[in-house]
Amino acid sequence: MGKLAFVFPGQGSQAVGMGADLIETFPEAKEMFEAADRRLDFPLTELILNGPEDVLKNTENTQPALLTVSAVLCALLENNGIKPDYLAGHSLGEYSALFAAGVLDFENAVYAVRKRGLLMEAAVPAGKGTMAAVLGLDAEQLKQICASVSEKGEPVQTANLNCPGQIVISGTVAGVDEASRLAADAGARRVVPLSVSGPFHSLLMKPAAEKMREVLDGLPVADAKIPVVANSTALEESSAEDIRNHLIEQLYSPVRWTESVERLNALGVDTFVEVGPGKVLSGLIRKINRKSTVFQVNDTQSLNEVSEKLKERV
């Protein structure tokens, strides 16, 4: 029998009202939401349940909100006896994976990503950096385009290697604009500017990374009980020291998602569960390897249905 991996979504998967049915159905879910409010000393639960959406979309709010819902769903899956062999998360989702692995406890994970969001927002002045998704262009070709633009003084680089034919670039506004134009000229099927507040996963995030090191140095970080495939290396990690270093690198390095899924496949994973709101990762995984079985767990109904299906595997 193949192995099972839990994967956790990043920013963009949030929605007002996510997790509402979990709070109503499971006392332990309500307790975790309340614990997040206490650790952050602000009403995160109220914002998740009722918005407004534009405030929830702020990076420093989105990150703890998504982690909270993902962590609750993960805890409920575990309560149902479902345990993965491997873990991974996309960008912010890596912190949800580390909670699932026992590397960070829930309250410290929520605190860490709240700080991460604030530091990412502060790293580059508003309006100076951006990101764009490039569809239908070879990764190596796009890297060369970004390098040629960066050499002229406007930094831009590949940031999210999501799946074959879908790569996000990140950098200064001028750098991303020029690389987008050159990518279109080189035959990209489409270039889609992203509605983000900064040049995430680019070298412009290095100031945030240095300050994030101080945050993580102040938190207890344990060895992983379940291996986590890291964004920055696309390799499984278990040592607390390695994980801490990769979380720093992650802020200014590409998210190597295609390679991460391929690595999980190579480790024997044939079944993935996207644990958290949305279905972005499920779509990417299917594009990377059509043979993979993919489930989404994002509410009480899907939690129960998928738990039953996965129990049949045992």
Q: Please state roughly what percent of the residues sit in beta strands, choosing from under 5%, 5-15%, 15-25%, 25-35%, 35-45% or over 45%.
A: 15-25%
Counting copies of identical and different chains, the oligomeric state is single chain
Radius of gyration: 19 Å
User: What does the overall shape look like?
Assistant: globular
The total count of helices amounts to 14
DSSP strand tally: 10
Termini distance?
9 Å
The stretches of 5 or more residues where confidence is low (pLDDT under 50) are none
Approximate helicity band: 40-55%
What class do helices, strands and sheet pairing give? Answer: alpha/beta
**Average pLDDT level:** 96
> What pattern of helices and strands is seen along the backbone?
EHHHHHEHHEHEEHEHEEHHEHEH
Structure description:
The protein is of the alpha/beta class and 314 residues long. Helices cover 51% and strands 17% of the residues. A six-stranded mixed beta sheet has the order 8-7-2-1-9-10, sandwiched between helices. The protein contains 14 helices and ten strands. α13 (280-288) links the parallel β9 and β10. The longest helix is centred in the N-terminal third of the chain and has 21 residues, at 59-79. The radius of gyration is 19 Å and the shape is globular.
